[in-house]
Each structure stands twice: as structure tokens, then as C-alpha cells.
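Example 353.
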Amino acid sequence: MSAIAPAHPANPYSPLPPGSTFTEHDWRLLARQWHPVADSSEVTGAPLQAVLLDEALVVYRVHGEVVVARDVCPHRGVPLSMGSHDGEGVVCPYHGLRFGAGGRCNRIPSSPGQAIPAKLHLATYPTVERYGLVWVCLAPDADNPAPLPVMPHWDQAGFQQINCPPFDINGFAGRQVEGFLDVAHFAWIHTGTFADPANQLVPDYVPVETPTGFTVDYVSNVSNYGVGFHHLAPPDYPWLRHFEVHLPFCASLTIHFPGDERLVIFNCASPVSARRTRLFVPIARNFNLDQPVEEVHAFNLRVFEEDRAMVELQKPERLPLDMTLEAHIPADRSSIAYRRGLKKMGFGEFFLA
Ligand code: FES
Ligand SMILES: [Fe+2]
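Predicted structure in complex with fe (ii) ion:
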């Protein structure tokens, strides 16, 4: 990856958030990427606060369009997420200035007849709604814009789209994503949900590099049916788990169930800070379409909980990119590919506490 452009005084994105938990180098690299900050369905009337890379954001919708800006009123610095929405925009709770489409100030109640100076408009961030999520890029790189991560099957006919409620983890996004890619922990952590404690073997697999990360086809006989339903798979069914990693913090897992049944779990770890992660998980599937989505939410919540316990305990909290700092076993090929990919993107050893 090319060298990082120095902070430009004219760039509204240049100041690092106060109290940033990232090094400046890593913050700027992460800020070029797309990260999800909210479920689309949550962004309705009242303004919402989200935190991304230690930056507090206000997220609101006006006439259907989502606006994301720093959660600071340009007048006297009150958080706009404390305000209300009157149908034409977000109204600041202090002096009632209102911000509408594109973050433009469209009302100054104390001097309604006066022209509105440009300084009162919000500096907004590029925003995209996709996979039921609101994605934000804090500091786009104009010369080399980051692509939005791709989720397989979401738009395909016959597939149902499900958004699990966001899930908060007191840990670093990199550790969480690495855990999502880790197939050796199934028999240890996920025995209450889908795995078999007696089936601990990890067959060989080979990560294949792609322009945005890598893919892995992992075949084993670990069933993905819930515990108690393993008999549903034909005997010796070879379970294919296809991972697609989009660095730094998104990865999809497509599980090939018997027949043409497919389940896609899109693990999008949003870095609230270096120590907090909000996990967004869009799911697509072409079977069990009559099952209430609440049951899908509940099952996935249990799996995330099983993972969370480990991710929050890991030390160092961050992820060492220097391969010599932790010990590795043959099952770790995905973890190693993940760390190498992050290193290649130019991240420092910021993952080290
Ligand atoms: S601080 Fe927001 S209107 Fe004055
Ligand atoms: Fe797991």
C-alpha cells in the first residue's frame, strides 16, 4: 500500500478524535475504509449517536436520505444526537439550529430572515446503505477509494435477508475477526450451539490471496445444524465453509448445507475504538424461510456470546502483527493469512497493547 498522506490542514477529516485509542498512522489507514455504524432500520426519526474510531457521529435521516456527521453542533458544540427531529432535519437542543439534507443548516430560529453562512453546515461523511447497514468512510482516499465489502447471495432470488441486532464486545475488532476465521475452536467453544466436543480435528486448508484479503475453502465433518439436529445431515456429509475476508474487519462465511441450501453469515466488526467493537451481522439464507427471524437472532446471539468470552479475555488486547510474538499451530493458516494481510496493508504493530 502507498505511503500515508500527511494530514492536510484543509481536510475537514484531518484532526484525530480527542483521546484516540489508535496511533495516528493506523487511525488514518482505518479511516480510509468503509465501516458499518448502524442498522438502516434504526435510523428513522430521532438522531442517533454512533462511535467509530473514537469519533462520535450523529446519524439521522431526512426525506429518506441518511446523513452522518460529527456529533458536534457547529454553533456551540452541543451533541446533535441529543436533539430532536421535526421532519425537516435535526434540531439542536441548545439554540434550535436545524440541520437537514446533506447536513445543511436550514433554520436559525433566532434570526429566521437572515442568510445562513456556510460555516453552519455540517461536515458530513460519505455514507452508503447496503446489507441493511449504514456504512461510513471517515476519510476517503480520493486517489485510491476503498471498495465496499461484498456479501455473497444477499440480493439473490430465493434468499432471505436477516439483520441480527448489533452486538457489543469489549475487545478489539481484529481479535474478533480473527476468531471468526478460526476453525480450531469449534469443538471447545461452540459445543452448546453447533459443534461436537469429540470432533476436534482441523483438516488441511489453504488461504488464497485476493485483492481485498483472502478466501478459504474449509471442508470438515463439523455439522452446522444446531446441537440435537446433527442427524439431519446425510452420513459423512462434507461440510464446506467458504470464507471471504475483506480486510481489515469484514469477513463472510458461506456454509454449504445439504442440497443447495446456503447460509451466509457476514461478520462486520466495526471498530468503535481499539478496545470496543460493535459487531453487525447480516445473514442471508435460502432455507427455513418460515422460521421466525427472532429464532435466528437468538441462535446467533448464543454463538457470538460463546466467542465473546474468549475475545474479551485475550491478551494483548490488540493483535500482534509481528508473527514471532505469538505461537502458531497448523490450524492457524487463516489467522496467519489475516495478520499478514493487515501487515501488508501497512498497519503497524498497533494491535499490540
Ligand atoms: S449549540 Fe447548537 S444551536 Fe447553539
Ligand atoms: Fe466462534
